[in-house]
Structures are given as structure tokens and as C-alpha cells.
Amino acid sequence: xxxxxxxxxxxxxxxxxxxAANRAAHPDWxxxxxxxxxxxxxxxxxxxxxxxxxxxxxxxxPFTGDYAGDLLYATLLKLGLADGVYDRRPDDxxxxxxxxxxxxxxxxxxxNKPTPAEAKSCGDFLRKEINAMKRLKTLLVLGRISxxxxxxxxxxxxxxxxxxxxxxxxxxxxxxxxDSYHCSRYNTQTNxxxxxxxxxxxxxxxxx
Length: 208
Prior knowledge:
The protein is 35% helix and 13% strand. With 208 residues, it is of the alpha/beta class. The protein has one domain (13-206): Uracil-DNA Glycosylase, subunit E. It has a five-stranded mixed beta sheet, with helices on both faces. A two-stranded antiparallel sheet has the order 2-3. Strand 6 (168-170) and strand 7 form a beta hairpin. Helix 3 (67-78) crosses helix 8 (195-206) and helix 5 crosses helix 6 (144-153). It is globular and about 45 Å long. It starts with 12 loop residues before the first helix and ends with a helix. The model has no long low-confidence stretch (mean pLDDT 96).
């Protein structure tokens, strides 16, 4: 299996149909599985949920073009995990430093809600990506679905590791898993997640 799904990946019929509809409506958008961003020799892998409809699904780069990306990339720049300027477009020249970003589900789902079956279908891509990162030390997972998908990709049972913002799990594989609420607009507008809380989680992951 390749590291990234092919552009015409059909493992998830619902997501394939959603891509087809969006290609018809927005032919100039990416509208395909979104590949990971950042160096494979990074020690930190950030695992999001899935591409946003008008964010990564439009631009083709994880967390690029929506509010979640504004907070994520500003935090990475502040902590020295990125260089350059984030400008909501994939050709802004931004480079990640010792970290890589991917999603548990590589295709945009309707209403930003992948099904458990879709997360499972994409699990092999996440597993292969983790295995390809030979220097990987830490996973920063954004949200419960990403938490569970990452544990499954490592061959571990999610039920043994409770999700909670700021929790750090030292896994038997030798990898550290750091939990964070997803940096979505909804979570920040409801104050479930503040910029300071998110920075604290990213900093903890970077320091592992």
C-alpha cells in the first residue's frame, strides 16, 4: 500500500461520492485525499481528524485555509516547529521543522464527521506513515477519533488509554501520545479549547 491514498481512492464510497459532487461544484479545488505535510524524518507527528471542506480539501495541504489551521500554524511558528509565514495557501513557503502533519481520515467527510468504518479504512495509511517515520518519538492527536485511530495504527487497544486534553500516554511501543482537543473554530468559540491550552499541549508534545 502506498503512503498516501491515490487521487481516485474508492475505499469509502460515501467519501468518494462527496468528492465527486465537490469536483463538479468546485473544479478548481483539490477535492481528493490530502497527503501529509512535513518531513518523514520528523520526531513529532500531529494527527488531525480529516480535511476541512473549504480548508485542506480546497488547498490540498493539511489544515491550510481554515480557522483550525490559523491556530495550529501560529502555534507551530511560535514554538519553532515551523519557519516562514503561514498565508492560508500551500505555496506560501511555510516549512515544518521536526514535525509532520496528517489526518486520521484523508478525505473530507460530509459535515466534518467521518464514520467509524471510514476511519478504519484509512487506518492502514496512518499505520504505514507511522512505520515510515523512523525517528518518530511523539504523536500529538487532535480529538478522540484521532486518538483512537492512532492507537489502532500502533496495534494498541484504544480502551486502555482514555482520551483527555493534556494527557500524556507513554506507550509500550516507546512512542509518547499527547492528547489535545481539536483546534476547531467550534472548540475555541465555546472555550472548550483556548489558544493557551492548545499551546501547552503542543509544547508538551514537542518537548517529549
